[in-house]
Amino acid sequence: MFPESSTKFFLKVMNAQHTFVVDETGRASRVILHQGGLDRGGEERMATRVN
After folding, report:
1. Does residue 30 contact residue 18 with C-beta atoms inside 8 Å?
2. What is the rounded distance in angstroms from the CA atom of residue 10 to the CA atom of residue 17?
3. Number of other residues whose CB lies within 10 A of the CB of residue 6
4. Mean pLDDT calculated for residue range 18-38
5. pLDDT at residue 12 above 70?
């Protein structure tokens, strides 16, 4: 995964992009997969970080 911006990333092995939606605190709360003209996700919550 390679950065396009601080919230947008793309893959070189397939034509797909990911957009991370950040909350009011600036933490990524959702991710949207853009592939083949479709946008998937966005409503799912990101996994909680495990330390």
Report:
1. no
2. 4
3. 9
4. 87
5. yes
Strand partners, 41: 32
**Alpha carbon distance 34, 9 (integer Å):** 10
Tell me the whole-structure pTM to 2 decimals: 0.63
- Amino acid code (one letter) for 40: R
Q: Looking at residue 10, what is its pLDDT?
A: 86
DSSP per-residue letters across 1-51: -EESSSSEEE-SSSSEEEEEEE-TTS-EEEEEEEETTEEEESSSPPPPP--
Residue 17 carries which side chain, given as an amino acid letter? Q
Comparing C-alpha atoms, which of 3, 50, 6 is closest to residue 26? 6
Cα distance between residue 34 and residue 6, in whole Å: 16
